[in-house]
Amino acid sequence: MTLFLNPDKSWKKAAYEDFSISFVGSFDRWAQICAALKDKDHASITAILNQEKGCYAFIIIHKDIIFSAVDHVASTPIYYSDHAVSNCARTLQKEVMAFDLDKTALNEFCMTGYCTGAQTLYQGLYMVKAGEGVFLSSAHKLEVLRHFSYLPQIDESMNMTGAKEALGSVLDDVFRRLVTELNGRAVLLPLSGGLDSRLVITKLLEHGHDNIISFSYGTKGNGEARIAKKIALNLGVKWLDISSENPRILYNSQLRKDFDCFVDGLSVVPSYLDFEALYMLSLRDDIPKDAVIINGQTGDFIAGAHIPEKLMDDKATIEMAVDFIAEIHYRQNQNLKTDKNIIYNGLALDIEDMNHQGPTAIFEFWEWQERQAKAVMVGQRSYDFFGYDWRLPLWDKDLVDFFATVPLELKLRRKLMVEYLNDYDPKGVFTAEYPEITPWPKGRGWIKWLARGCGFIAGRAAKDACYDRFYYFSNYHNQYALFGYDSYLKHYKKTKRFVGQAALHWLGDQGIDGE
Predict the structure, then answer these.
(1) Whole-prediction pTM value?
(2) Among 443, 439, 435, which residue's Cα sits nearest to residue 497?
(3) 3-state SS class at 403
(4) I need a labelling partner for 257 at 20 to 30 A (CA). Which of 155, 175, 187, 386 fits?
């Protein structure tokens, strides 16, 4: 029973009585949690962890027990084997000699971009799942404690008027606490054309925090950045244009290889979405060293944007929910086939009685525990790699708990959130007319006309094929350009957009055949 703590300045150490503590994030109830651990009081441990509103991960050693826990979205990962724990998957892999590939996990990785459940790509190497804690004893006895599950408990009495009022109250509490915690520190805010980053920036300003530097990134001339610039100007907030410059050179660098090793957890494709932008920001001398990055993850999910409308039908079933999970999330590699039994069995392990849960609840649970906690949260590791502190106000536990009670008809297509924002609307930033965001950055509209010409001559299939062939030059060019156009042309017919290609490249770097 051993702890292998990898050097990482975001992790800190503490002690309480004869307990040794390694931690990251906001959790600080050490007296309470240690007392509960000493008494082996699992109910109290669960209650204490559920009281924490922010993001955290910790590892506590006491005599012959190691207890590791992550927050409700696993924003910082922890890894374990049957006799060791670490904050770094690669460190633990070497220490416990876990080098045998898990073929089922590899298949899922190629189809989704991440491993599901507690599995990594290697047998005997696991991750603590979102909302869980893991006990490990010197006798190699392993026990999992579930302290949080995202299973909506709907309040059917809630109407739109009351819901908007309640949402506003929760948001104000969340940002009031955040502003107090920031205590004037500079905020680096990635601003897009979407609603979530607009919500974050306006709420920070409303509650008195104006030390904000907003920035937008991606392919030069993309529509999101143009809208973000207008929003920042309207709000009087500094805005930086961090357009992509040399992604291919950066991808071939040692920095990128170090980045991959730091963030991938041997279980998820690294997020290259803002990799180049964060690197460029790290070179600037006008960014305070103690700046905190605050993004809008993941307001669309918790507000209901991802719920398939067909699952709200009275005749919808759990099998339909599993079908939607497979159709939406297991599609990164067109050459592979999804085994839906794997999805169903994974859900059955985590939900005591699936028959008492509606299909929408099953769907949201899976996306929360798998996609959000892995494919989305890996982006926070990018901030850690470049040395930035960060916060996730839209994953605040109070906000998550609130949306778990909202009726489905108010969540579908984010109806409640959109209506709230339209009413809130400081300086008209939510109701103003903005240019339509197209897939193509400024100067590449010719692709649209070329595709239309192909369609006119040879039909819809030819039009779609043209779009697919030239999607490399879309708003996502800054990501595809990491690998180059030759690589894109080699893989685009069998992969679903960027993640599928990134998975193949990452596997190739590890010496794993993902073809």
Answers:
(1) 0.96
(2) 439
(3) helix
(4) 187
Neighbours of 30 (CB within 10 A): 17
Q: What's the Rg (C-alpha) of the chain?
A: 23
CA atoms of 78 and 465, how far apart (whole Å)? 42
Sign of torsion over alpha carbons 166, 416, 426, 295:
positive
Pairwise CA distance, residues 319 & 326, whole Å: 11
For residue 155, CA distances in Å to 166, 401, 424 come to 12, 12, 24
Place of tokens 């067109």: 334
Ordered structural domains, the chain, with CATH: 2-146 (no CATH), 160-297+380-428 (3.40.50.620), 309-371 (no CATH), 446-509 (no CATH)
> Encoding tokens for residue 227?
């809208």
Q: Which residue has the tokens 């507000």?
A: 303
What is the per-residue pLDDT across 30-76, written as a single tens digit (0 to 9) for each? 999 999 999 999 999 999 999 999 999 999 999 999 999 999 999 99
> Tens of pLDDT along 344-383?
888 888 887 777 889 999 999 999 999 999 999 999 999 9
- Cβ contacts of 268 within 8 Å, gap of 6 or more: 113, 114, 115, 374, 375, 378
**Residue closest to 127 by CA, chosen among 57, 36, 203:** 57
CA distance 355 to 361: 11
Tally of CA atoms within 13 A in the half-sphere of 221 that contains its CB = 10
3-state secondary structure of 51: helix
Phi/psi at 146 (5° precision): -90, 115
Sign of the Cα pseudo-torsion (17, 18, 20, 23, in order): negative
Q: What is the DSSP string of 98-116?
A: ---B-HHHHHHHHHHSB--
CA distance 361 to 367: 10
Q: Hey, which residues does 3 pair with through a beta bridge? A: 85
